[in-house]
Specification:
Layout: H1 2-6, H2 12-18, E1 35-38, E2 44-46, H3 48-62, E3 70-74, H4 80-90, E4 93-96, E5 117-120, H5 127-136, E6 140-144, E7 155-158, H6 164-181, H7 195-199
């Protein structure tokens, strides 16, 4: 594990502590390839290395866009705190709570927005955002648990997308990587927020 360890975005113990790898008892065909094993209690365990790789791919992809070109939405309350923190640090447009239908498809709305990329916390509760992005041909990144379907998604980040700590850790890493890649942090400068700012109440 030694060498492999060093290549992760964060120490594996941080990942494990957040429960990011603990899936559900239900698994879809698409998500099966990210599952490392099934525990005796029936819960699926996701492959940490794949989670880490996908977070890095997502951050690299997002870094090709300016903050105002990105829209991240999360219907589930467990992700709101992390989402707001990410928005505050990066300037990325975030929508914690209910996604207002039509904001990407109806130019007559005052809230009309034209993102170049959409990121959702869970493609099921956030399905309206996925649908709208699909209609206008904008790529969609989604956090997917073992029970999620992948239709209409361009990039899946396998993870526990229900736990506060797990979602918080993902958004912490996305914010940190995005800021580094966009030159918002000088040299070896650390991001001003800690993991706890994304995960704790």
């Amino acid at each position: 594990m030694g060498e492999e360890q060093e290549n992760l975005l964060i120490e594996s113990k941080e990942y494990l502590k957040s429960g990011i790898h603990i899936g559900t008892k239900f698994k879809t065909k698409y998500m099966a390839k990210f599952i490392y094993k099934t525990r005796p209690d029936g819960l699926s365990v996701l492959n940490l290395k794949q989670i880490d790789e996908r977070v890095a791919i997502a951050a690299n992809f997002l870094a090709q866009y300016e903050p105002e070109q990105i829209l991240i939405t999360c219907r589930r309350e467990n992700g709101w705190k992390a989402l707001k923190k990410l928005g505050e640090l990066t300037g990325i447009k975030v929508l914690p709570g209910r996604y207002p239908p039509g904001i990407m498809t109806n130019p007559n709305l005052e809230t009309f927005t034209e993102p170049q990329v959409v990121f959702v916390c869970d493609p099921w509760p956030d399905k309206n955002a996925v649908e709208d992005a699909f209609k206008i041909g904008v790529p969609v990144i989604a956090l997917c648990d073992t029970n999620n379907q992948s239709n209409k998604l361009d990039l899946v980040i396998p993870c526990n997308n229900k736990g506060k700590k797990s979602i918080g850790l993902i958004f912490y890493l996305i914010a940190r990587e995005y800021m580094q890649k966009k030159g918002m942090l000088a040299g070896n400068e650390e991001m001003s927020a800690s993991i706890e700012d994304f995960t704790e109440e």
